[in-house]
Specification:
Layout (H helix, E strand, L loop, with lengths): L6 E7 L5 E7 L2 E6 L6 E4 L4 E4 L1 E6 L12 H10 L2 E6 L10 H14 L3 E4 L9 H7 L4 E5 L11 H14 L2 E5 L11 H7 L2 H14 L5 E4 L5 H6 L3 E4 L1 H5 L21 H9 L6 E2 L8 H4 L16 H10 L5 H16 L14 E4 L4 E2 L18 E2 L4 E4 L2 E5 L2 E2 L17
This protein binds N-carbamoyl-L-aspartate (NCD).
Length: about 425
Amino acid sequence: MERRPDLVLANVRIPGGRKADVAIRDGRVIHTGAVTSGIQTIDCSGLFVLPAAVDAHVHMRGGKQSAKEDWKTGSASALAGGVTVVVDQPNTIPPLTKPGAFLSRVHEAKEHSLCSYAINSGVTPGTPIEEMWAQGAMAFGEIFYAPSSYSDALDSGDLSRALGRIRALGGLATIHAEGIVPGKDTGLAAHDALRSGLHEKEAVIAVQAGNTDGCRLHFCHMSTAAAIEAAKGTVEVTPHHLFLSREKTCDENALFKVNPPVRSEKERERLWTLWDRIDIIASDHAPHTKAEKTLPFPDAPSGVPGVETMVPLLMAAVLDRKIMLSDLIRKTAAAPAALLGIPPSGFSPKDRADFALYPDAAVIIEPEMLHSRCGWTPFEGFRAVFPSTVILGGDVVYKEGDFFPANPTWFTGKGYVPPS
Ligand code: NCD
């Protein structure tokens, strides 16, 4: 006789309308339809059951930067926001541009992460790209076309050569497309002008022109409509560019300081007109301490936390009928999984059994609710819908503020060669 399912999610409103039970065994969905009972059953009546999100752009910090965040607090923050897979960026200290640093990063994540993860390789002229691919790098980058927190830019020639090598491997290059002009970085308007939308668009065009071998390009955290229109690769947009604008705070508020900059309200509205062109939403979760972010504007680092508020802000937009639930699921779960080549979470047999269960009501975001060590959020006062329960690989790993033992997976890139 067949073993009973480990978990049954009963009375799930499957996106599209029908009601069904979802049976889960060994971390995968085995059946969606009418199911008798599981070893554990959760009644999902009245809840939104979403395939859990993949956040393709987070900075989990750790090591010397543990006062900002580490794998434990960052991954707790992810789970509490309905994200079960994060892709860690390589601008760590030390940067992930050598196999040794990459392997210790994997080790650190294995030891401490509560959620599943993938880790990208950094790219510098000296990076052994082929070795990093064999070590399990998920993708390359974010590759900086202009300097940002903890990373220098790659010049055009080096970038072009690196893209050729990544192309030869069949890898994905993820690009931080920005340009900077010199000037005084005195406040949000100046920051926006020094790293303007026009420069973002020019950077996109220049990277594409240098991509003579036709490497697969993914543009990270795009902040302006014109730059998105110029992009030929996949496009990622963050919640801070969708929901924040310079006008929503005072000019000297460095809590909103981020690269690419938070733009004007007019530009933010334009960004929404390209909603259908946006392939994925990712948070660019870039925590810094409150002490660093309350330094005078020119001295404060760029970056905002966001992994925990990403889906909750979008869920509030669903309740407000601004976006469709199916779009939210595609842009936060299905599309990033497909982009990275990891199994999708969802309702079909063999899908990864990662789900987040949301109530039908929004709350107001307060920093005290959140789990990132940085202890602040640029979204304070915004409406959001947080998950009440989160499931990772068929196990309940988060429920109403409590965390339970998880069995996270390290998702490697396609070039991974396991040690013999
Ligand atoms: C990021 C960080 O702090 O690591 N900062 C940011 O403003 N986005 C780096 C980056 O992605 O540019």
